[in-house]
Every structure is written in C-alpha cells, then in structure tokens.
Amino acid sequence: MTPLHYLFGQPQASADLRTHNSDFIVQEILPFLPTGEGEHHMLHIRKSGLNTADVARMLSSFAGVHPKEVTFAGQKDRHAITEQWFGVRIPGKSMPDWQSLNSDQLTVLSSARHGKKLRTGALAGNRFTLTLRAVSDMDEVVRRLELIKHTGVPNYFGEQRFGHDGKNLIFGRQMLNGSKKVKDRNKRSIYLSAVRSHLFNQVVSERLRQFELKVLEGDCVMLAGSKSYFVANPWDEALNKRLDEQDILLSAPLWGRGQALCEAEALTFEQSVCEPFAVDCAGLEQAGLNQERRPLILLPQQLSYEINDDTLVLKFALPAGSFATSVLRELVDYQDVKEREFQARRAAASEQAHD
User: Fold this and answer.
1) pLDDT tens, 260-296?
2) In contact, 290 and 257? CB cutoff 8 Å
C-alpha cells in the first residue's frame, strides 16, 4: 500500500507496542444508558485474549439464541484488554445468569435490559490507555505529543481496516470487479469499507503533502461533533476563526453516489487524487454507497501521559470510527509486538508446510 504522509515528518524515535495485552486498553463510551426494560439484554464486558466475534459466539451459545440476535457496537482486537458493550435479544422474561460466564478472559461488568437493539457504530467514542516500552528518545516523543495535543493528527483509517497484508482491500477490489463472489453480508461490508477507506487515506495524505493545513476555496467543512457540513466558498475571517477554534473541521470524501460535496479548488484537487482510482470509485457507487465526509484531522481528547524510565503510558479519548494507531504513527515508529509474533508463527507454519 502507498505510504501515507506524516503531518510532522516521519518519527525518529522507536518503541514497542502491545508487549502485553494490558499495554493496549480500550473502553467503549456508550452515548446512552440501558433503560432497564425491554427484550434486549445489554452486557458490559471486559475481555482479554478474545476478539469480538469470539465473545458474540459465546453469548449466543450461552443464551441459546441465534447468532444474529447478538449484536455489538464496535469490533475490538484480541490482543488487548477491552471493555465492550454487547446486546442479546431474548424475548420474554428469561434472565440468564450472565455472571456465570466470568473467566480469566472475560468478566461481565454489568447487565441490564434495554428496549432497542444495539447497532453497529452506536458509540460516542473510545477511551485508550496505551503503554509504549523501550522508547528510544523520550524527549522527541514528548515534543511530538505537545504538537499532537495542539494540532491533532491525520485522521487516517488504521491498518486494522485493511486486514493482514492489506487483504481486505485486495478482496474488496476483486469483489467490485466481479472476480470474487462474496455472499456473506458482514464480509461484503468489511471489503467495501476497506476500498472506501483507502480512497479517503489517499486524499488526506496528498492534501497534507501539497497544502499542509491550508484551506482551499470550496472546502466542505464539518461542524465539530456532528456529521453536518457546508461549503466554505469563499473563506472569510469568520470561517477562519471558527476553524482555528475547531468549531468547524476540514474534511475529505468517503466516496459514493451523488454529486461531490465540495466545490471549486477543493473539488478539482479531490478529483485529481481520485482519478487513478476511478475503478474503485465506480465500484463503490454501484455498490450503493452515498457521498459522505469525514474530518481531515483527528484531535485526541483528554490527552495525558506518564513517563517511567523508557516507558510511556498514554491516555486519550477518540470519537467513534477513529483509530488509536493513527495517533501513534505520528508519534513514534512503533513495533507491534503481538503482530510481530503473529507474523513469525505464520512464517514458521508456512515453512513447516513446505518441508
């Protein structure tokens, strides 16, 4: 995949990430509280060494319901400690003993009834506590942290979106050109999202490379904390002030059907970046996706850090759909220890299979 532009230049300091599961802690922020009534059971679960699908299967089996009756707002990694919400639809008065599911890998923190299904994306955001070990140049990392606290980072979709070796993007393109048939709705969604996310990343990267954080006539700007947008044409003193105060945000396209949402200079620029990916764009339109926007810059909230020798503990919150790894890539050249271990096991298995 094409290397993406760094807002502050490529980091020179190195560090290890996810030496232990406890080095990557994620807590979902739900935008509502369970009502206490209804046929949906809301479960707040802490897990380690399990991915979201693992837990969903466990809940389905335990409750004796079809897997489609188990829902969750977001996907969370296996190699982390995560606090995540699940919904289980159980009509009637049945109240399973959810606490009996508790184990070394899973703890049911709370359970309550709710009147509505928990849907994908129904999150306000996530809180992160990340531990970086063997930091090679702490002064440089702290300097970049202060830049990030003030300016933010490129709002790239993280490598998780594209799968190991970018296979989600590869399969997505194959699916769109008809060379790969995909019937599973969840996989289709994952592959489409990978293609769309790749386009977004390319536009953001090139925009920052060419213009840094300068505005363009016809920019489509978003109201902070919402998906509402409008076109800034022309830019004036009042709009520049709102941008400085982060009341409005620059944006880049999530490709789909319909007329482009920016105009003038911004439209010309975005079209020029997307032109080499015309096949991807056409495929996304034919798949039924509509034009949307996503902020160009991601500003971590409540960012704080603690230093102990060569170890750095970072704490921050991000809105739903944002990636902690996009913050980290701008901060330090990190090595994901768990990913490195996975690649080593896969290489060993491949070598053994060829013996």
Assistant:
1) 999 999 999 999 999 999 999 999 999 999 999 999 9
2) yes
